[in-house]
Fold this protein.
Amino acid sequence: MKIAITTAGTDPAAPMDPRFGRAPHFMVFDTATHDFVLIANPNAAAAQGAGIKAAEAIVKAGAAVLISGECGPKAFRALKQAGVRVYSAKSVSVAGALEAFGAGKLPEATAA
């Protein structure tokens, strides 16, 4: 399974970015290989539609789960329609978010 996490940095020790569509990067963790892939968010500064474009990038990366602080309603709907489960985490590192997810400590979002 692939897990995408919004991040302000470039490694697992970096803090999560609490924004989804405006996060500068997404870190995608593959639970089968334990590898991380960093994806730049080219739409982070878009005037509008950043959340939808970010959702498309997450789906294209093959993520089944997104961990982020905030996710707007349009992006949330796009992710849900693609079968991506959305979980909420704040004020932790990418690695901390993964650890909390693995321990079942993150709440699954039911709405944006």
